[in-house]
Amino acid sequence: MEILPQDQKYWKHITDILETRAHKFGFHRFDTPLILSREVVEKIPSLDPAVSVDSLSRVKTSSEMDDALDMFLQADGTASLINSYYNHYQTEDALKSAKLYQIGFGFKNNSHLPNYFFNAELIGDDQPTSDALLILFTWQILNNLNLDKDFSIELNSVGCAECHPKIIKQLENHYFENKDGLCPNCQSLEKKNILNAIYCNSSECNEIKNSAPQIVDLLCKNCIDHLKQLFEYLDELEVPYNLDTHLFRNSACATRTVFDITSPENYIIGRGARHDNLIEKFGSHNMPAIGLELLLEPLVQVIKNNQTKINGKTTDIYIIQLGTHARRKALSLTASLISKGHNVSCALHKDSLSNYLKEAESVGARIALIIGQKEAMNNSAIFRDIEQCSQETIDMTDLDQYITRKLAQDY
Q: What is the per-residue burial (b if ≥16 Cβ within 10 Å, else e) of 236-247?
């Protein structure tokens, strides 16, 4: 597609908000290749259920245009970002946790017209706190774009490696038994592809979908507990969401949390999904992850009359949690400080204190707030001045005063 001069301000407005919000949440930009091998695209599914290897645009040589190479133009950012992460975030015996994002474009349905996207991956933690953080991140983007009244977050769980195959089997049976009630296009689907009808918006297919088994009733106990904890975190963060018991991802790589960003007319501008078993497809190591994709062209169309000025600061505050109770406290504190306009990064993955402090320095943080089990119980935090290498334990009621004083000195 062409981005006309008169539309450039809208694109800049959106990308400024995306990058500013990503930096505030501690994500780092990672630009990746546009061309991918068949091996990569077959390992990593798109977050868009309509995208398959057969729908991707193949790369042709300039000298022999009739002979296609076994290379493809990416459809969205998931495959390239996960592939590049695996290649560059390895140590000798493990993978590093990471919060990565990219703004790029891809090609779908054998089209040579680009689709622009924002893609983010939170890698290294399998707890619902990370799910809540990414959904909070998504909601604050909608809020900054003044779209929080126009779109909602539809949320569900698709189960784990244990219960996901059973869910697929039950849904396949339901759709196949009711195949005659599907729309004409979906009636032509073979049984192995019958679940593609889930993504059809025709009235016939929606009726079959609404009568399908509710996925939450088919989850194992661990997945139910994961979903309940996620609800608790989102309620505590006051992030609005809707439980859509029929929301599904027909992919073996999708695990547990999935969400769509939709309008009342079921117009989707973004998707998210946890994929805890995806990275191990590249080798012997694995890391749990949850990802988000936003479609930029639809966003431009929706917000042409909506402009907001955003400044882009570096990270000011790095929050470190040490323990289960501290994790919840750190998540709430992150949301609170971000809402006050601070640039915050929160370390939710498990690591040593020394490594946390090194990462705080690497992202340019001026302050590290350390919350352990004792601090979580006492409503306190260890306030560390990174530049002066000094620290003291303070009560949470005095936190704003300490932060204001420190940041005023630096500016």
A: ebebebeebebb
3-class secondary-structure state, position 267: coil
As separate numbers, helices (DSSP H) first and strands (DSSP E) second, the chain gives 13, 16
In 215-354, beta strands by DSSP E: 242-243, 257-262, 268-274, 289-295, 317-322, 344-347
Query: What is the number of residues in the chain?
Result: 411
Cα–Cα distance for residue pair 40/347, rounded to 1 Å: 29
Tell the residue number behind the tokens 């970002």, with chain if given. Answer: 81
What is the 3 state secondary structure string of 164-197?
A: HHHHHHHHHHHHHHCHHHCCHHHHCCCHHHHHHH
Q: What share of the chain is helix, strand, coil (3-state, %, to 5)?
A: 45, 20, 35
Q: Go through the domains of the chain in sequence order and give each one's CATH number.
A: 5-150+255-302 (3.30.930.10), 164-215 (no CATH), 317-410 (3.40.50.800)
Q: Tell me whether residue 211 is exposed, middle or buried, using C-beta atoms within 10 angstroms of its C-beta: 0 to 12, 13 to 18, 19 or more.
A: exposed
User: Which pLDDT value is given to residue 369?
Assistant: 95
Q: For residue 244, give the amino acid letter.
A: D
Of all helices (H) and strands (E), which one includes residue 154? strand 152-157
List Cβ neighbours of 163 (8 Å cut-off, separation of 6 or more): 218, 219, 220, 223
Please state the pTM of the whole predicted model: 0.74
Encode pLDDT of 3-60 as tens digits. 777 677 788 888 988 999 999 999 999 887 777 777 666 665 554 444 444 444 454 4
